[in-house]
Write a structure and sequence with these properties.
This protein is α/β, with parallel strands linked by helices. The protein has 9 helices and 8 strands. It has 2 domains: 3-20 and 97-239, HAD superfamily/HAD-like (Rossmann fold); 24-85, no CATH class. The strands form 2 sheets. A 6-stranded parallel sheet has the order 3-2-1-6-7-8, sandwiched between helices. Strands 4-5 form a two-stranded antiparallel ribbon. Strand 6 (174-178), helix 9 (181-190) and strand 7 (193-197) form a beta-alpha-beta unit.
Length: 242
């Protein structure tokens, strides 16, 4: 991998740069369930915890992002949902990541953009906790993933086709670093380079918090649409001089 092939790095946030499964995703799931229970029942009825949890999972599985089940159009309802989903008593204490990230990003050539389906406020807070804010020139969060007035977040093909235009570059100059193979697959279709980070992959096939490993894929395999497979972001160092 030469420097020219990766002049623009696109980094996912949760479970790529830090372990969101440990504490953050379970809290987000509970926050979402609480909001859904209050706002998504028929005729104002309050849903039970199991009903809200089932609806949240159904939204995520059908649309790729729970927000799309709440509202496909950016509006007050969607903003309220995002704000409620990302409420934490002590977020800094919940962020778990490897040491050495600052050193890695300081020496990583090329521009860096954060690409996350989380809210912008949450993304900025996590980057600050990780000490990575100075290394990212831009954050593209779910609020800004809109096409023709509708939310179109990862892993939507339309989003990845539009992304190079948004960034004023070409797909071939971009490299996406992600834990979600659905996003990597669609990014690869557009011509982007792809890196799969496996360290924080959800090992459960029955996860209720985020993307679960498909049964049909072996843990040791590398899908054809993944250029590089690494355990952690820090392992990318070995590829930089290739």
């Amino acid at each position: 991998m030469t420097h020219q092939k990766a002049q623009l790095w696109l980094f996912d946030l949760d479970n790529t740069l830090h372990d969101a499964f440990a504490e953050i995703f379970p809290q987000i799931s509970e926050n979402m369930n609480g909001w859904i229970a209050t706002h998504c029942g028929h005729d104002g009825a309050i849903l039970s915890h199991s009903e809200a949890d089932g609806l949240r999972q159904a939204f995520w599985q059908r649309y790729g992002a729970t927000l799309l089940g709440i509202s496909r159009v950016p509006n007050q309802r969607a903003r309220q949902f995002l704000e409620a989903a990302h409420q934490f008593r002590n977020l800094p204490a919940m962020v778990h990541a490897q040491k050495g990230l600052r050193h890695f990003f300081r020496h990583l050539p090329g521009k860096k953009v954060l690409l996350t389906n989380s809210s912008g406020d949450y993304a900025r807070q996590v980057l600050a906790v990780l000490g990575l804010t100075p290394f990212f020139e831009r954050i593209i969060s779910i609020e800004t993933m809109c096409l023709v007035g509708r939310y179109t977040p990862k892993p939507a093909k339309r989003f990845f086709r539009h992304l190079p235009v948004l960034l004023k570059t070409t797909p071939f100059r971009c490299r996406l670093v992600e834990d979600d193979i659905r996003s990597l697959k669609n990014a690869k279709i557009t011509g982007m380079g792809t890196v799969l980070v496996t360290q924080y992959l959800n090992r459960s096939h029955h996860s209720t918090h985020a993307y679960a490993r498909p049964r049909r894929k072996r843990a040791s395999g590398r899908p054809s649409y993944v250029d590089i497979k690494v355990k952690s972001v820090l392992r990318l160092k070995r590829f930089l001089s290739r």
